[in-house]
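Quarterly update from the structural biology core.
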Amino acid sequence: NKLPVKIPKVFEDYSTRRVLAMEFIEWRTLKSYYLEKMSPPNARKLFKDLIDFELYSYFFDGFFHADPHPANVLVSSSGSLGLIDAGIASEVLVSDRKKMARFVRATARDDLEDTIKTFLEMVRTPLLEMLAEAKRDYPQHWMRIQFTKNLFMRKIREELSSLLARWHKASREGGPVHEKSPMHKFMEFFQLAARAGIRMPQAGVLFARTFLSIDVGVLELAPDFDIPRSLVEFFDKFDGEFIKLEQTPDEIPPHLRQDLEGEETEILKMLDEELKTLDRELLTERVSGMMESLE
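Predicted structure, tokenized:
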């Protein structure tokens, strides 16, 4: 009820495991406007509703339509929004939703310090883990270790600062689609991560793939649509939901769940401990190799 979007009704009495019977919506697809290179009616509100719906579903519901390409987006004659074909949908963990929401909120507000902080919270950074371990086990080399960490953090800052500056400038003053597209920028984040040995979370990859389907089409049909401003307005409008998300506890690890039997709990606990042991052994091996190169 908070978001104006038409979803086809499912007729369960006529549906089976192989046949899904749904309401027919006689609207045009966004793809048809895209092919004709013409803007749909009430385009600005339509695109705002589409972005808000996907963000709300991802961040606050944790279950979202992961394939909103132009052929799956319907437009009524008055410019109302409809969505079909939820064949690709996904659930997102609370912990991943929190991290992604903080990161997107910071980038939209052009807050470099918060962007860096939330980016590092969202990703896995083996180098920083190795440096923290090395500082503890090799205190005699703390200056070299700290110098390496400072170089890494300076590179992250420079790259994120450049990406943010180019994105916001292009969105305000105009520029090519790839500069105004947040998901093109997100793909550049991925490239930055790969160069720095950073592991992007699966939820982040899915987020980028989903929204790349939206923003390029939006910017092609409405070149002056200001996506950063739209994102800021989204978080302002749903500030209460954001606070509620922040207060929601993260998921309970499988081996600590109360609804499992004793044997299941023991198996999951054993697997969890083995994974931690492997991670630890790998980290120790990498730290040893890194310290040899520093010496």
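The chain has twelve helices and six strands.
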